[in-house]
């Protein structure tokens, strides 16, 4: 059950989630290759089927981009971007959710499966903002009952001034090209 926070996941559901994740990662790989073409030496897509890949994925790292400066930028990809924005998981079953407990990935990307647009932000800055501003004000917080417990989400709204300047929007132009908006 590793990687699913102890929630029983049936094989068909796991297979469906795997297929969705693989499609998102394939598009993401293309974006990384084009967007970081002149800024990086190497891009590693961690394969869960290898020992190192499993270790990195369990830390919440999908890719490592080794920049020209030799800094290793660790990223996490979520295929949950919609025209209005996305949600991040704050708490699940009374414990910190993926977003709050994440410490290893420097940057999170959210991918729109229909348009191939993406947003990204530096994780520590967004965590700090959400904890010190959003949670305290209880705005953009949604609680829902799922998997036998309560999950608390934060809604990141793209066209709201609250989140303005806190993420970078990458518009898909077609032919494997993206541009910062």
Order of helices and strands: HEHEEEEHEEHEEEE
The assigned structural class equals alpha+beta
Tell me what portion of residues adopts beta-strand conformation.
Answer: 35-45%
Strand order of the largest sheet: 1-2-3-6-7-10-11
General form: globular
Provide the low-confidence segments as ranges.
1-10
In short:
The chain has helices at 11-35, 51-58, 98-101, 123-137; strands spanning 40-45, 63-67, 72-78, 85-92, 95-96, 107-111, 118-122, 141-146, 149-157, 168-174, 177-180. The chain has 181 residues and is of the alpha+beta class.
Question: Mind explaining what this structure looks like?
Answer:
It is a single chain. With 181 residues, the chain is α+β, with helices and mostly antiparallel strands. The chain has four helices and eleven strands. The strands form two sheets. A seven-stranded mixed sheet has the order 1-2-3-6-7-10-11.
Topology:
Blueprint lengths: L10 H25 L4 E6 L5 H8 L4 E5 L4 E7 L6 E8 L2 E2 L1 H4 L5 E5 L6 E5 H15 L3 E6 L2 E9 L10 E7 L2 E4 L1
Parallel strand pairs: 3-6
Antiparallel strand pairs: 1-2, 2-3, 4-5, 4-9, 6-7, 7-10, 8-9, 10-11
Summary tags:
seven-stranded mixed beta sheet; 35% strand; 11 strands; alpha+beta; 181 residues
């Amino acid at each position: 059950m590793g990687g699913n926070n102890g929630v029983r996941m049936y094989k068909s559901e796991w297979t469906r989630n795997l297929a969705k994740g693989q499609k998102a990662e394939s598009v993401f790989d293309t974006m990384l290759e084009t967007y970081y073409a002149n800024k990086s030496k190497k891009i590693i897509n961690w394969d869960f089927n290898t020992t190192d890949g499993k270790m990195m994925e369990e830390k919440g790292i999908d890719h490592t981009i080794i920049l020209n400066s030799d800094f290793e930028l660790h990223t996490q990809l979520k295929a949950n971007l919609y025209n209005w924005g996305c949600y991040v998981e704050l708490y699940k079953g009374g414990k910190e959710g993926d977003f709050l407990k994440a410490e290893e990935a420097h940057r999170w990307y959210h991918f729109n499966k229909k348009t191939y647009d993406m947003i990204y932000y530096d994780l520590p800055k967004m965590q700090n903002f959400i904890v010190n501003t959003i949670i305290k004000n209880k705005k953009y917080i949604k609680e829902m009952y799922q998997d036998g417990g309560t999950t608390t989400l934060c809604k990141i709204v793209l066209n709201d001034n609250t989140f303005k300047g806190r993420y970078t929007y990458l518009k898909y132009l077609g032919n494997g090209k993206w541009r910062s908006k």
